[in-house]
Amino acid sequence: MQDRVLAVAMNGVTGRMGYRQHLTRSVLAIRKAGGVELPDGSRVVPEPVLVGRSADKLRRIAEEHGIERWSTDLDSVLSDPGIEVYFDAQITSAREEALRSAISAGKHIYTEKPTASTLSAALELAKLARDAGVRNGVVQDKLFLPGLLKLRRLLDSGFFGRVLSIRGEFGYWVFEGGWQEPQRPSWNYRAEDGGGIVLDMFPHWHYILEQLFAPVRAVTATTATHIARRWAEDGSPYAATAEDAAYAVFELEGGITAQINSSWCVRVDRDELVEFQVDGTEGSAVAGLRDCRIQHRVATPRAVWDPDAPVDQGGYRDQWERVPDNAAFDNGFRAQWEQFISHVCAGTRFPFDLLSGARGLQLAEAGLRSAASGNRVELEEVDLP
């Protein structure tokens, strides 16, 4: 069987996420490994075509990694019939128009999220892709993290019994920029540019909750702009117009309650930057990016409230057992890229489509409405007409 080359237009690879996770650690790593093996035994080798606004940055990346083609003209790239897939990791405000153009050109779509600025626009993109007959997918990388893969293993095995609740803690301190360089771009803190932690993180929480547990039916959220003044890439100060923290309760189908704190203004006192504690009738687990710890009902110590007595057995955290890897875990972005390439070339199942991405944006919009009104907001089921 002959290998096939799949040309992929990659827009936004000069940014940190687009370059590190999608280009070098995913597409180029897959290319170096000889491609993706399809169910019939043949292989597909992705060949990136870089797209962006800065010719100097694109040229430098292309020369460093042996990439033959790059362009600052998106329209000319999309008009090339030899390019089958369009990938978008641009700034959020530029994504919707580019995705529309790519769908109109008949390209298969793979994109970062959020897919658009509003739910209605996201649903329209999903409808356009369906009507055009193009395969489409949205990055949902956290499902492929080792810690959450172990959590899925526990769920599939029935370890928890009936799941009662989920508690999530995400975030870290993002430097303001005045005295130390910030770890995130300044547009993240400007609402007019599509910034804000709700729009950034609630779509992640949506697919984690939906894919691992149950659909989200209602949300109650509080947001804050804790740091109102930050400094841009050129050193100039600016007013932060988007929220940098969100504290939310998500009500899931079946009576499960999830509480997730998201903040770029918190100093980390946990093992990993994100952790989810799942409590069930039979057992509990704490899953992070890589690790997962468990405590089954038969090994649960008898906790008694006594502030005058020291904690026995070396502390509560020592009473948990670590879940072994039992498998080799690849980069989460790469794993989903491989699944999407197989979906495009062989029609294999890929549930993370534009409609799924739209539901994530629905949750973000509901969270912002809840924070603005102070009310609980129910989510209606969304589907394509």
TrEMBL record:
It holds the Pfam family GFO_IDH_MocA_C3. The keyword Oxidoreductase applies. It comes from the Bacteria. Residues 50-136 form the Gfo/Idh/MocA-like oxidoreductase N-terminal domain. Residues 149-285 form the GFO/IDH/MocA-like oxidoreductase domain. Belongs to the Gfo/Idh/MocA family. This is Gfo/Idh/MocA family oxidoreductase. It comes from Streptomonospora wellingtoniae. The lineage of its organism: Bacteria, Bacillati, Actinomycetota, Actinomycetes, Streptosporangiales.
